[in-house]
């Protein structure tokens, strides 16, 4: 028999349950789904390069100078 449960790890009791389940690796398989935003769509993840490109673009627009060339 297989049981699927949803545990809210934002609470102390939920985190305690997950820690206890993680001790039994031979029997328990834990999967973490992709985080979902309030609109129900998956949250966007950024690579380090994408993150810095966004920051540099914002700063360049704000100050009117290409920050990458400074």
Textual characterization of the structure:
The chain is mainly α and 70 residues long. The chain contains two helices and no strands. The protein is elongated and about 60 Å long. The N and C termini lie far apart (62 Å).
Task: List the keywords.
mainly alpha, single chain, elongated
SS field, number of helical segments? 2
Strand element count:
0
Calculate the terminal CA-CA distance, rounded to whole Å. Answer: 62 Å
Structural class: mainly alpha
Shape: elongated
What Rg, in angstroms, do the CA atoms define?
21 Å
> Roughly how much helix do the residues carry, as a percent range?
25-40%
Encode the helix/strand succession as letters: HH
What are the segments in which pLDDT stays under 50 over at least 5 consecutive residues?
none
SSE order and pairing:
Layout: H1 12-22, H2 48-63
In short:
With 70 residues, this protein is mainly alpha-helical. 39% of the residues lie in helices and 0% in strands. The model has no long low-confidence stretch (mean pLDDT 87).
């Amino acid at each position: 028999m297989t049981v699927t449960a949803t545990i809210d790890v934002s609470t102390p009791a939920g985190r305690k349950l997950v820690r206890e389940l993680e001790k039994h690796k031979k029997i328990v398989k834990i999967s973490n789904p992709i985080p979902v935003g309030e609109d129900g769509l998956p949250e966007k993840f950024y690579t380090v390069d994408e993150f810095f490109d966004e920051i540099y673009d914002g700063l360049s627009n704000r100050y009117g100078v290409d920050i990458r060339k400074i």
